Structures
1.
Amino acid sequence: MSDNGARAERLRQDGNDHFRRRNYTAAEACYSQALVQDPNMTAAYANRAMCRFFLTSHDASITDCDAVLARDPNYLKAHYYKSKNLLALGNVDEASTHALLAYEACVAQGADTSLKMTKEHLLVCRKERWDVKERRRRHAARAFEREMLGVLEREIERDVLEAAEGGSEAELAAVREEGNKRLADLRDVFERARAKDDVKREVPEWLIDDITYNVMLDPVMTPSGRSYERESITKFVEKAGTDPTTREPLSKSDLKPNRVLKDACSWFLDENGWAYDW
């Protein structure tokens, strides 16, 4: 290791010490000095990105994450913190993309200790993305309702004016009554549409993990043909070493991705974001 490389490593270790004590400003300074000594130190970029996230310097943290990903496109920590920064900035679509990349990197690398963290963050991102879509949908629906009611009210007003000019009192009353009925009918249509949003919602049984009874995001299959959430079955196997259903010996290498069920779970959750809170 060159002199510059050795100095950079010492500074990085100093930064780690400050980070463990939650002195993020001092840690950021150490990582920055390390990068002066060695501009290609990927770990220093990644660690500085973490500091900057906790210091709420989100744009700068994203820049560091991008520097890491330019060197290693599968760097778990960089995808994870880029996602957290993007979510903090309100960019829910890109945040969800990088949250998924972080989770997939975790699975590919066998980083079981990070599985729960990356999965929970992915769920948070997807739930927030659905909430944003739902707010936009409801706002658009309310705007459409106001527009349609306004159109009908103006049409009824014209009919009433015409009846007032050339018709009898009875004809005018009939026009007003018909107009009020049309308005009431249209309002009822919108009320019934809103009521459908408020009905009790059920999560299908195939979406539920039989160990935790939570919704599944990344189901894997055991040799017995049963599917479980990757995180929960991994923990169960590490502890018990058996299949939860058959009690036959089971290891992590026996677990196979259930891609069809995974796609179905993703589709259901994308269309029914309320299920994240189930």
Note: The longest helix spans residues 115-166.
2.
Amino acid sequence: MHLLVTKPGEVNDGSDAVDLGQSPGDIVFLSSASSDLSLVSEQYDEECGLSLRLANLMQLSHNMSVDLYVEKTVVGSKLVVIRLLGGVGYWPYGVEQIREVCLANDTKLVIVPGDDTTDPELTRLSTVPKESCFRIWQYLSHSGADNLRDFLNYCSTLIGIKKSWNEPKPIASAGIYWPSLSHIYVEEVFKYWIKDRPIVAVIFYRSLVQANDLLPIDLLVNELQEKKINPLPIFLTSLKDPYAVQMVTSLVKGNKPDIIINCTAFSISSPGNDALNNPFKYLDCPILQVVLSGGSFDEWKSGSRGLSPKDLTMNVALPEVDGRLITRAISFKKVQRFDPLTEISIVKHSPVLSRVRFVSSLALSWIRLRKTKVAKRRVAFVVANYPNKDGRLCNGVGLDTPAGIIESFSRLREDGYQLGDQVPISSKELIDCLLTGPTNASGDRNGGERFLLADYKRQFKRLPETSKTQIMEKWGNPEEDPFVVGDSYVLPIHRFGNIILGIQPARGYNVDPVSTYHDPDLVPPHGYIAFYFWLRFVNNIHAIVHFGKHGNLEWLPGKSVMLDDLCYPELVLGPTPNIYPFIVNDPGEGTQAKRRSSAVIIDHLTPPLTRAENYGPLRDLEQLVDEYYQAAGVDPRRLGFLAKEIIELSQNISLDKDLGINFSSDENIALTQIDNYLCELKELQIRDGLHILGLSPTGLQEVDLLVALTRLER
């Protein structure tokens, strides 16, 4: 196996086997929180008479890394303290190996939770009294310079070096923050606000304040102010801490933010407990999930996955449970210095300006949508077209897309949106309207909107040089695009007042549309980019509704998650609110849209479901089989005749071949096989039409759907 030796100044996510190269120390402290390690390092004094080693658990994910660390560092220690987030299941091999060595060498072991939730299993695995475990847990949970100084002094006492120590001091688990100020009250924040500007609450961990690791937060606050937004920065220990929840609830209720930017990990909700003690429950505003990554900038920039598996779980997958809108990683870990006393590289967050600007722009876009009067809102409805044939226009999976759009248009008009006088009122009218302009199958029609080639070039020029080169090398110059007629692009876009209806362009101009639809490397052509640029820069839309699974924007080239400014979903869509009605039974593809285009997924019902039943020859066969079993009880003389009829019909429709039945070997077994097959077949669930967004099934369709949904135990 390839083994990496870490060097001062390196940050790694632990996925590879590494040798941290630390010498033994009297006390070893392990934590996955860089802020813990930074603060403990600051409080350590080499003149205290003992040696201290610090290490990040994230670097010890690989089993070989654990073996090396135990062999080189833990073996010579007198006390090992592990602050473990997620319980033993988070790091089972490490706990097992370290405990084994500690027991063999009479080394004291303390394992405490990484959050404020008790974990009796960790206490049981520790080798010191539970009172000592609790005290150390409280030192680390409350944190701060005084508590961590007493933590080190108390640890010294446990290994026989007497030091004076104080009991853990509780510290406020939530509060207000403002760059360059300390110990402030909310009234002081108001001094920096400008009246009547929108408010954005920024939620982040208290540990960043304690470790003075605030560059990403400071930059985000400054960018929000640049965009004429009043920031409300709030730090807390956890969104599950009752006091923190109470404090945050009071602050957000009193100041009514228009949007929330959340920089904390994990979820609030849990099965059977959707939003108990959720401070955002009654705010009725979007929550943007921002990531402060535990990885390095270089790994993120050069890679395609965007986040390590741990970061993805904590900062994306779990927050999605709460319905947060996944945005960008605004900072990455960077080594600030190497501490030779504790033999650890002290890392802190280093912000990325372009990502901070994107998040603040996205927040502003959602605020703009919220603040604009309904009658003036401009919204684009974009329909899928896969494969690229006119017969597959409005091809939302499981969705009667034309009928759903007509229903949506009707609701929008009722709510005060301006749709003009020419809006379609039936599915046929809607399809006929789309066919008057260009489609992915034909660009010869004259309908649709025009986008001046000169205006497109002006916007195209603003793209990164790398992206422009990729597009030009693949598709040539803008004027060579097949959707250019004269001096303009002719786009599959139709305007109804302030509402736009458009056909999402193909990614590859009918060049193998099936494979190009999900091709991770195929850059979009000029006509595709022109479509979205017209929506954004000419029509200046407030939001896009991608109507039904599945579109192709979320499959454009770029990182899997936490996109940069070279990723094509961002280049095309920009910081535009993206609303995406999506079939409820395909969360996998919906996740792509959430993570790569910050989409708000609105789950819609599957098509109405019903039993398949049997029909035609299968129905006739079922009747014969039923007669056969009835005759077995009341008229056995008919069995031979009925069996012959069943065999003949089965052979006529080749059912014997489909089921591998041999009538000559055992007729009774064959008849039982046919009966079982017919019963299974008619009980299969099939679609009974398509779902119309905004309308529930009625009558027999409703009954059959409810039966289908409740057939299986849950």
Note: Residues 613-683 form one domain.
